């Protein structure tokens, strides 16, 4: 089973997937919308092919997604894992990969969707937040939830400490959910 990761940033979740010995699928492509992103280096170090594009060079989302779709199909990819990909997936990819696009978000959705989810939770002085892995639909962080894990917020916390604690949970939860999804599919 072949999978692509879409990421725009540092790529710590991407790295965690690559380090998982038993992911039940093979990450064969990184798709990145920011040519300078640190995640690209991580792909190169691991000899994973990278498809980079600059959205502003295209007239529409549909135009760049059509190109991505061609690349995905040529590579025989059946799953897409979003890991800090800061764009909404449009109808072109959604229809081609229905039920096969998964995202990770650093809150207990539906609480704190969108950007700065960790900061949002921290600033409201919530007692807990967490991590959600969910399927993608047309909304922002609204698709069906697959798995969640709670992360406590302590009175002594700083945003940095909380962020690190959340990342640690992400790096364990995402690979394990991916593995389960692929194995369940194989059992059907
Ligand atoms: C993660 O917190 C993920 O939940 C969110 O974006 C962040 C990506 O971090 N969607 P990284 O690039 O994997 O380090």
How would you describe this protein?
This protein has 188 residues and is α/β, with parallel strands linked by helices. The protein has helices at residues 12-19, 38-45, 61-74, 91-96, 117-123, 159-187; strands at residues 2-6, 26-32, 50-52, 79-82, 101-105, 128-135, 145-152. A seven-stranded mixed beta sheet has the order 3-2-1-4-5-6-7, with helices on both faces. Helix 1 crosses helix 6. The longest helix has 29 residues, at 159-187. The mean pLDDT is 96. The structure holds 5-O-phosphono-beta-D-ribofuranosylamine. Residues 7, 9-14, 83-84, 104-106, 170 line the site of 5-O-phosphono-beta-D-ribofuranosylamine. Keywords: Purine biosynthesis, Transferase.
User: Mind telling me the CATH class?
Assistant: Alpha Beta
The tally of domains stands at: 1
Oligomer: single chain
Termini, distance in Å? 15 Å
How many DSSP helices?
A: 6
Structural class category: alpha/beta
Ligands bound, unique:
5-O-phosphono-beta-D-ribofuranosylamine
The ordered string of helix (H) and strand (E) elements is: EHEHEHEHEHEEH
Please name the fourth-level CATH homologous superfamily: Formyl transferase, N-terminal domain
Strands side by side in the biggest sheet: 3-2-1-4-5-6-7
CATH topology: the name is Rossmann fold
Query: In terms of per-residue confidence, which ranges show pLDDT below 50 for 5 or more consecutive residues?
Result: none
What does the main sheet amount to?
Answer: 7 strands, mixed
Looking at the overall shape, the CATH architecture is: 3-Layer(aba) Sandwich
Number of strands: 7
**Radius of gyration based on Cα positions:** 16 Å
Strand content: 15-25%
The overall pLDDT, averaged over residues, is 96
- Proportion in helices: 25-40%
The 3D shape can be described as globular
Binding site for (6R)-10-formyltetrahydrofolate: 61, 86-89, 103
Active site: 105 (proton donor)
GO biological process, one term: 'de novo' IMP biosynthetic process
EC number: 2.1.2.2
